[in-house]
Amino acid sequence: MTRFRIDLGYRGTDFHGWAKQPGLRTVQAAVESGLARVTGTDVTTVVAGRTDAGVHARRQVIHIDVDEEAIGKLVGRSNRSAEAALLSRLRGVLAAGEFFDIVIHAVTEVPEDFDARFSALWRSYQYRLADNRSFIDPLLTPVTPRHKGELDVEAMAEAAAEVQGLHDFLPFCKPRAGATTIRTLHELHVARDQEAVITIDLRADAFCHHMVRALVGGLIKVGSGSWDVTRPAELIAEADAGLTPDVPMFVTPAEGLVLTEVGYPAPEDYAARAAQTMARRDQE
């Protein structure tokens, strides 16, 4: 078997998220259907991070394993490499069908110890939000939710700085059975771009379910004056202390969220990173 890393992006508007679901249009189902067409066999994808319905990805990463027979069918009589053939043919079948909202950026042969999910060091996201100060670009309105009124971005930035680090993000997560809500949030930055649109950039080792959109929701409460600047950090401090804050989450609309990048170590560290991540998951 040969392992390939595939870098791709997609507009999530018309997808019901990444993961396959019976009878629904999903990114995974589309990509695996395309892979089956070009290789002549069923291919299973492993993704760096599953995205929810309506969430976009600028730079997502998956890996696949393909046997020699499938590679032979893929390359055919051409003198192209397997990487080049897979890139060209997968782009072709997706663009020619109904999956024009998926873009294949690159295909790379990688060592078998590369794991798109477990070898990852971090994932980064950006959330775009317009308020009454923002220039409303009609080309970007489908991916930029609007907030009525004007938000205090300075207060939001101050609140964001106080919740970075290793914490229990239970107040801003939808817990899943057997999974931890402890994460390391490396970056949470709030600013206005040149058109006064609010951009919220986040980077963490991993994110639990709804964590990004719930954190953004908390910052919006700060920016609108509904919460004090210290409130998000106070809720996380309670969770760190083993308490369960009784505060309903405010989850922002999916269309403003984009997976922007996934970071990996040097190739010689793929296996060690994957082992470290899997060991931590087993302990959870």
CATH architecture call of the largest domain: 2-Layer Sandwich
Which consecutive residue ranges, at least 5 long each, have pLDDT under 50? none
Q: What is the name of the CATH class of the largest domain?
A: Alpha Beta
- Find the CATH topology of the largest domain: Alpha-Beta Plaits
Strand segment tally: 9
From the alpha-carbon coordinates, what is the Rg to the nearest angstrom? Answer: 20 Å
Binding site for substrate: 125
GO molecular function: tRNA pseudouridine(38-40) synthase activity
Subunit structure: Homodimer.
Function: Formation of pseudouridine at positions 38, 39 and 40 in the anticodon stem and loop of transfer RNAs.
Written description of the protein model:
- Strands 1, 2, 3, 4, 5, 6, 7, 8 and 9 form a 9-stranded mixed beta sheet that branches.
- The protein has 2 domains: 2-110, Alpha-Beta Plaits (2-Layer Sandwich); 122-265, Alpha-Beta Plaits, CATH 3.30.70.
- Helix 1 (27-39) packs across helix 3, helix 2 crosses helix 3 and helix 4 packs across helix 5 (211-223).
- It is globular, with a radius of gyration of 20 Å.
- With 284 residues, it is an alpha+beta fold.
- The chain has helices at residues 27-39, 68-75, 82-96, 153-161, 211-223, 231-240, 270-283, and strands spanning 2-10, 46-47, 56-66, 102-110, 122-129, 165-168, 182-192, 198-204, 257-263.
- The two termini are 31 Å apart.
- It holds the Pfam family PseudoU_synth_1.
- Belongs to the tRNA pseudouridine synthase TruA family.
Short description:
By secondary structure, this protein is of the alpha+beta class. It folds into two domains: 2-110, Pseudouridine synthase I, catalytic domain, N-terminal subdomain (Alpha-Beta Plaits), CATH 3.30.70; 122-265, Pseudouridine synthase I, catalytic domain, C-terminal subdomain (Alpha-Beta Plaits, 2-Layer Sandwich), CATH 3.30.70.660. The protein has helices spanning 27-39, 68-75, 82-96, 153-161, 211-223, 231-240, 270-283; strands spanning 2-10, 46-47, 56-66, 102-110, 122-129, 165-168, 182-192, 198-204, 257-263.
